[in-house]
Amino acid sequence: MRSVCCLLLLGCGTAPAASRDCPADAIVVVTTDYHSTQVGWITPSGGSGLFAGTELGGDPALALSAGRTFLIARDHDTVFELDRCGHGTSAFFVDRAGESNTNPHDLAVLPSGALFVSRYSSLSAIVLSPSGAPLSTIDLSPFDPIGIPNMDSVTSATLDGKPKALVVVARLDDSTPIPRATKTGLLVIVDATTLQVEGAIDLGARNPFGAAWPTSSGALWFAAPGDFDVVGETEAGVVRFDPLTRTASIIVSEITLGGSVSQVAISPDGACGAAIVADASSVNHTWLTTFDAKTGALGKTALGPTPGYDLRGLSFTSAGVLVGDRSHRVGLGYPVHVMSRASECELRLDHDVLLSLPAIAFGR
């Protein structure tokens, strides 16, 4: 196995090591400017402990599954498991011999302890043993015979009382310089025990994007922006998948939102949803809005619009709602907006926590 970054795992290297302790209310955070990456923790009151490592790359993502937290270094085909303070405890590589640039996008822990990893730039997903050794690859190319299936989120779930891995495939048209969302995305069902593909459900929305947001009811929520340079697409918006009926529906349409949704989060009680939305301008101004998760009724704009494509990173946490922002404040840093619910589905900005790099993902 290739060597991993000693700074992340062991606190060694030329930079000073961050403390391996953190406050009880610490929340894992990943920050990046898409050249360098930091990972660690923040507290709603403004405390933080962040550290960098070359193996973290410049295109990170955060995966949360089965109470565990993983940082995915997409451009390095590497996954780091993190402790509650954001320190790496182990590392896994998600390419087999002869593979490279598979672009892992998400990870789910199966009931067996195996790790199911979706790979956006590959024809197949990969399943790793609990120790990180490759067990199997799962060919998903039949779901997009023209190109690669564009795997994104993967969730460990129960359907009809049996464990499954649910994999989103976007099925983009990769023949153009900027891939286009010409087909609706699918939710591919894989048996978590046999690792056999069982079929797929049409999500009825194009370009399902980013990690799914699971709720206590078992429902999964997705952002489906379609094409970001177009607003008013009928097959785009906030999507909800019901595991009991195995059906998906657009709860809030792109037409209602007034832009392309890039991220969705749902409150722990399942009543309130929040969405980051982008317009179709050349800079994709973003804003944060709320919606009733039961009826789809649109709420108020809680943040923005921003100068550009700035809001990224959205999470309902035990401390409230956290929103990352790439709008730099000269001499101060990049804000994380700490918000609370003023009513059932209205968000109020409490204060900002400032970091040296923009936050793009949070634990819960």
Keywords:
single chain, 364 residues, mainly beta, four-stranded antiparallel β-sheet, 2 helices
**Beta strand %:** over 45%
Kindly state the number of beta strands: 28
Rg measurement, Å: 19 Å
Label the overall shape.
globular
What is the spatial order of strands in the main beta sheet?
3-2-1-28
Biggest beta sheet summary: 4 strands, antiparallel
User: What percent of the residues sit in helical stretches (DSSP H or I)?
Assistant: under 10%
The first-to-last residue Cα distance is 31 Å
SS summary, helix count: 2
Overall pLDDT confidence:
92
Low-confidence stretches: 3-18
Q: Give me the strand/helix succession.
A: HEEEEEEEEEEEEEEEEEEEHEEEEEEEEE
What class, by secondary structure content? mainly beta
Q: Could you describe the 3D structure shown?
A:
The protein has helices spanning 6-10, 254-257, and strands spanning 27-32, 37-42, 48-52, 60-65, 68-73, 78-82, 88-93, 104-109, 115-119, 124-128, 134-139, 151-159, 162-169, 184-191, 197-206, 209-214, 220-224, 237-242, 247-253, 260-266, 272-278, 286-292, 298-303, 311-317, 320-325, 334-343, 346-355, 359-362. The radius of gyration is 19 Å and the shape is globular. The strands form 7 sheets. The chain has a 4-stranded antiparallel β-sheet, with no helix packed on it. The chain has a 4-stranded antiparallel β-sheet with strand order 4-5-6-7. Strands 8-9-10-11 form a 4-stranded antiparallel β-sheet, with no helix packed on it. Strand 6 and strand 7 (88-93) form a beta hairpin. The protein has 364 residues and is an all-beta fold. Mean pLDDT is 92; it is low at 3-18.
